[in-house]
Specification:
The chain has 364 residues and is mainly alpha-helical. The protein contains 15 helices and two strands. It has a single domain, classed as Farnesyl Diphosphate Synthase, CATH 1.10.600.10. Helices cover 58% and strands 1% of the residues. The chain has a two-stranded antiparallel sheet. Helix 2 crosses helix 6, helix 3 packs antiparallel against helix 4 and helix 11 packs antiparallel against helix 14. The protein is globular.
Length: 364
């Protein structure tokens, strides 16, 4: 059996996501400087790890990843918004990101804040686009700029099923509502699919559940909560509970939600969802620990941003508590556990296995 080529897989999936994003943002909207600021950071050279994890987990569930390109690509908008805001003077005050001047250095602080706001909001509109790979029509996104009273009609309303189920209780394990019961999936019926066609792959109830999942992971109970605690913990004595909270929420929450997107949209059973949730949490925590290590060991050329910033800001990190080798061992243990969790899956989960191994070896 040929060895799985993770570099080719990542390249192909990155190009798939980039192609969709390029098409989506190809036509300028007004004001043009806002559109430019959004594109500047979105196309600054990201690895697209979160969208790729969503595509890979969907594939692990036996589905075609091309079915969920808009939903997966939307994760990159949320990630990019968070980086723009992270770099602001009021936050981490960084001048470089991915080897380029940060957004506020090019467009000013006010426009950088608004670009981040716009990307976050647009992500949820993108998630509702259920006819990949075409993006919403330009008219539906720009009518309000013409100065008239034209009603803004988001493209996702076309073919909408007005009988969509409301959100069911059941949030991401490890974050708020950990013990909430999962929603009971409705009977599988051909016309219970987005758009009403029997060959559509995503149920409205599944899409709603994903949107709720992502909102939780990106908000106060997830990434933003972790960022807030990260700031509050500067110049304080490191402790394991606070450190775990920061890393679980600031980074692992959105990565976990990215992985969960696959089984939820594939309408997989709860055992599959539980296993992939655990994979996501372990991988997400390891990802941030490696980030902590690279901030100590890396250099500006490799990282595309200033190294040593955590120490300067007296951030609470794994190296500050466990030193480099202890941190590296913790990351390896988490990745080993993540891969072990996938033992219940077939070779269709090989991309997830190799992504985990890739993340532990990355240098940027």
């Amino acid at each position: 059996m040929a060895k799985f080529d993770i570099k080719t897989y990542l390249k192909d999936k990155r190009e798939l996501v980039d192609s969709y994003l390029e098409s989506y943002f190809a036509t300028p909207s007004l004001p043009s400087v806002l559109h430019e600021a959004m594109r500047y950071s979105l196309f600054a050279g990201g690895k697209r790890i979160r969208p790729i994890l969503a595509l890979a987990s969907y594939e692990a569930c036996g589905r075609d990843p091309n079915d969920i390109i808009p939903q997966a690509a939307a994760l990159e908008l949320i990630h990019t918004y968070s980086l723009i805001h992270d770099d602001l003077p009021a936050m981490d005050n960084d001048d470089l990101r991915r080897g380029k001047p940060t957004n506020h250095k090019v467009f000013g602080e006010a426009m950088a804040i608004l670009a981040g706001d716009a990307l976050l909001t647009e992500a949820f509109s993108m998630m509702t686009n259920t006819n990949p790979p075409s993006p919403p029509s330009v008219a539906s996104r720009t009518d309000f700029t013409k100065g008239g009273n034209t009603e803004v009609r988001a493209s996702f309303t076309k073919g909408r099923d007005n009988n969509m189920e409301p959100f069911a209780k059941g949030e991401m394990g490890g974050l708020s509502g950990e013990n909430s019961p999962p929603p009971t999936p409705p009977p599988s019926r051909g016309r219970d699919r987005v758009g009403g066609a029997s060959d559509m792959k995503i149920k409205p109830s599944a899409l709603m559940r994903v949107i709720r999942d992502i909102a939780i992971s990106a908000g106060a109970c997830g990434m933003v909560g972790g960022q807030a605690q990260d700031i509050l913990s500067e110049n304080t004595k490191p402790d394991i509970d606070t450190l775990h909270f920061i890393h679980l929420h600031k980074t692992a929450a959105l990565i976990t939600a990215s992985v969960r997107m696959g089984p939820i949209l594939a309408d997989s059973d709860e055992d599959t969802l539980k296993a992939l949730t655990s994979y996501g949490k372990n991988t997400g925590l390891a990802f941030q620990i490696i980030d902590d290590i690279l901030d100590v060991e890396g250099n500006t050329k490799e990282l595309g941003k200033s190294s040593g910033s955590d120490k300067k800001k007296k951030k609470m990190t794994y190296p500050s508590l466990f030193r480099i080798e202890g941190s590296r061992q913790k990351a390896h243990d988490l990745i080993s556990e993540a891969i072990n969790i996938l033992r219940i899956f077939s070779s269709k989960a090989d991309p997830l296995r190799e992504i985990a191994r890739y993340l532990i070896k990355r240098r940027s």
